[in-house]
From TrEMBL:
Family annotation (InterPro entries): AB_hydrolase_fold, Dienelactn_hydro
Protein name according to UniProt: Dienelactone hydrolase domain-containing protein
Coiled coil, from the record: none
Positions of the Dienelactone hydrolase domain: 37-251
Length: 256
């Protein structure tokens, strides 16, 4: 029996470029199992158990300035952060002004490629940072299902989070085994209000450990592409990132 869809395929809101955020990234590019990735690490590390965030990006990839700055923020809070380019350079912006670009065909093709590459990528990340590290995962739009799959099917991560998700079904929530933080937009065609409420019902039935933040005055994409000159968008973006840090710090501490 097919599980009902709750967060749909990326739509028009996901393809909107949004606002480029200002700042100078400090991370670097590194290859993991053939997947080029953005890596941002704490400026100082005194040894002990590492806490690692797997940053699963939206269709713009991990190398936009906005994505880099978010990853750097996580690293500034003592996490080792790795974000894969599971699009292999073919991110959505490379198709700007392309006549006849079929968005849905592109998404379906990229999902197949990403599904194949992510397990190998994670194995390589695990090899570098160690099986004793505390792994957390956050997904934005296209990246959300990878977080939920880890959170429902394995002990790969200790906690998960997502913001304005895509490509999720009921099983992702009813089978959850790890703590989940949800950053949601008031206006979200991909994950609308009825779907969000159904997701919460399933989390309650599953006796899951979860937290849901719903930000008024913002739309899908606010956590990565929101306008910092808009008070609602800026606050929601910053609070989403900050809550991800606090959520992961909580469970990394508890699991030691």
């Amino acid at each position: 029996m097919t599980s009902n869809v709750l967060a749909g395929s990326p739509g028009d809101c996901c393809f909107t470029r949004g606002v480029k955020h200002s700042g100078t990234p400090v991370g670097r590019a590194e290859m993991f199992a053939g997947v080029e990735s953005y890596v941002s690490e704490p400026s100082s590390f005194n040894g002990g158990t590492k806490s690692v965030i797997l940053f699963m990006p939206d269709i713009w990839g991990p190398f936009t300035n906005n994505a880099k700055l978010i990853q750097d923020y996580f690293a500034a809070n003592d996490f080792f952060v790795v974000g894969p380019d599971y699009f292999f350079g073919d991110t959505v912006d490379t198709h700007d002004n392309e006549a006849g670009f079929d968005r849905m065909a592109w998404v379906q093709k990229k999902k197949v490629v990403a599904d194949e590459s992510v397990p190998k990528w994670f194995s390589a990340v695990n090899e570098k940072y160690g099986s004793d590290a505390k792994y957390c995962a956050v997904g934005y739009c296209f990246g959300a299902p990878y977080v939920l799959e880890w959170a429902t099917s394995s002990d790969a991560i200790i906690a998960g989070a997502f913001a304005h998700p895509a490509l999720l079904n009921e099983d992702h929530f009813s089978n959850i085994k790890k703590p989940l933080l949800m950053s949601c937009a008031e206006s979200d065609w991909t994950f609308p209000l009825p779907a969000r409420r159904r997701a919460e019902d399933l989390l309650v039935q599953a006796k899951a450990q979860y937290c849901i933040h719903v930000f008024s005055g913002v739309a899908h994409g606010f956590a990565t592409r929101g306008d910092p000159n808009d008070n609602d968008a800026r606050w929601a973006k910053e609070e989403s990132a900050s809550s991800v840090v606090r959520w992961f710090q909580r469970f990394a501490k508890e699991s030691k």
